[in-house]
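Dear support,

Our group has been running a series of protein-ligand predictions, and this particular one with cobalt (II) ion is the one our PI (initials K.S.) wants archived with full inputs and outputs. We had some confusion internally about which version of the output was final, so please treat the block below as the authoritative record. The input we submitted was:
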Amino acid sequence: MLTELLEKNRKWSMHMTELDPEFFLRLTRQQAPEFLWIGCADSRVPANEIVSLLPGELFVHRNVANVVVHTDLNCLSVLHFAVEVLKVKHIIVCGHYGCGGVKAAMENAKLGLIDNWLRHIQDVHHKHHQCMSEVEDSELAANRLCELNVIEQVVNVAQTTIVQDAWNRDQGLSVHGWIYGLHDGLLRDLRMTVSSAESLEPIYHEAVAALVGKED
Ligand code: CO
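Confirmed final output from the archive:
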């Protein structure tokens, strides 16, 4: 099985080199991605592939259920490097419908260590109790929590010292909230795009309000 992977890799490398003989050479010199992607670790949501970006074009951080925790040194280090060194212009927090992490959080599943991580999503659920209680169908409710989770994680990104400092020095930087449909391979913009500290709150309220009464 693993030999197959190595064989596929050799073919891919040959194919890329045929298309562009300088491709790998250029990448050894530098990476200059314009985007940081914060997404779910789910194997069905491969970051580069779904936005058709090549190696070198997307800086990626993925974890279970695309959660941005203020004290997560791993995520903060990625964010710091992306904003201060690579100077990405856009940070995309991308969730997906049918997220197993979000479902487990909703069902209050007892899975072990990960329950502590998923607790952050339960906090989102609790915060939006009103908005969540409108949805009776459990699948639709899980989808809404996936959307709310993205919106809340955009807020968490925007509130980090890293992003706040970037805005303070007028570094152009936008944080976006998107959600991906496993069933159709399409991304949806949750209208949660924040480009300044002042706009965070009004945009957040609009994005949350837009979910209320929405059918899909
Ligand atoms: Co997921």
